[in-house]
């Protein structure tokens, strides 16, 4: 009898310890997610502040310019107009960032979705483990629910999105490019069925060319196999290489090297 009591006690203690470990792991995971979200929010605020500083600087330079209609004056006006567009884009990004954090809290906590801000734009990452079997472009049955949830939220807005397919370095570069494209196209197809406007979704494939982790490890390769939904700005990113002011703005917002 005493042996039975001791066994029950030990079992109860073991289950309690497992529960504590599980709770501790969940708490650490949630805290890490909060820290990451805070970092992303701070990054957006920093970019907004830098844009404000650039606006003040260019407005002062334009006001001090004696010949307002000179070539330099036009470049400054172009730069100020570009800053206005970027400020609006960052505002949209911030608002949507908060909305998606609330809407997909469970998916973000579980790791089924990852929310990032890259170069001032919102990026929603769907890992392969959630979407597809290995080396296949056929959606898992259970993954369709996650995509539908995402599409239902995004369909409320008229924003443009890029659906980008990525692969690891296993196999040929050509095969990886084709696989990543088929996967991105499959995600777009399901999203449009949920009410998203097809013309607002562009499909691109990067194959193995943009890894986010090393392909030398199994875990790294798994993270590289993904589909990303990237919020697109409502304007063309500056292509004027002769306007040094626009180049400086791009270097700040899009993490590019300025000349």
Describe this structure in words.
- This protein is α+β, with helices and mostly antiparallel strands and 259 residues long.
- The radius of gyration is 24 Å and the shape is elongated.
- It has helices spanning 2-64, 71-103, 105-110, 128-131, 143-154, 173-193, 218-224, 244-253, and strands spanning 114-118, 121-127, 160-166, 201-207, 226-232.
- It has a five-stranded mixed sheet with strand order 1-2-5-3-4.
Task: Write a concise synopsis of the structure shown.
With 259 residues, the chain is α+β, with helices and mostly antiparallel strands. The chain contains 8 helices and 5 strands.
Distance between the termini: 82 Å
Percent of residues in helices: 55-70%
The description of the largest β-sheet is:
5 strands, mixed
- Just name the CATH architecture: 2-Layer Sandwich
Domain count? 1
- Uncertain segments are none
Structural class label: alpha+beta
Radius of gyration: 24 Å
């Amino acid at each position: 009898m005493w042996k039975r009591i001791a066994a029950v006690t030990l079992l109860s203690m073991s289950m309690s310890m497992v529960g504590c470990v599980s709770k501790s792991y969940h708490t650490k995971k949630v805290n890490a997610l909060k820290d990451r979200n805070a970092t992303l929010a701070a990054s957006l605020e920093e970019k907004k502040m830098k844009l404000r500083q650039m606006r003040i600087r260019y407005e002062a330079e334009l006001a001090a310019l004696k010949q307002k209609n000179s070539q330099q004056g036009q470049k400054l006006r172009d730069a100020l107009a570009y800053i206005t567009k970027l400020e609006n884009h960052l505002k949209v990004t911030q608002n949507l960032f908060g909305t998606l954090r609330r809407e997909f809290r469970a998916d973000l906590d579980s790791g089924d979705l990852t929310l990032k801000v890259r170069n001032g734009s919102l990026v929603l990452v769907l890992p392969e483990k959630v979407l597809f079997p290995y080396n296949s472009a056929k959606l898992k049955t259970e993954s369709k629910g996650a995509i539908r949830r995402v599409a239902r939220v995004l369909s409320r807005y008229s924003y443009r999105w890029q659906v980008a397919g990525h692969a690891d370095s296993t196999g040929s570069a050509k095969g990886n490019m084709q696989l990543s494209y088929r996967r991105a196209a499959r995600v777009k197809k399901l999203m449009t069925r949920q009410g998203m406007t097809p013309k607002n979704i562009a499909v691109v494939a990067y194959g193995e060319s943009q890894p986010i982790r090393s392909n030398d490890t199994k875990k790294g390769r798994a993270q590289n196999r993904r589909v990303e939904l990237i919020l697109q700005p409502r304007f063309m990113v500056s292509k004027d290489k002769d306007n040094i002011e626009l180049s400086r703005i791009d270097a700040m917002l899009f993490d590019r090297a300025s000349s």
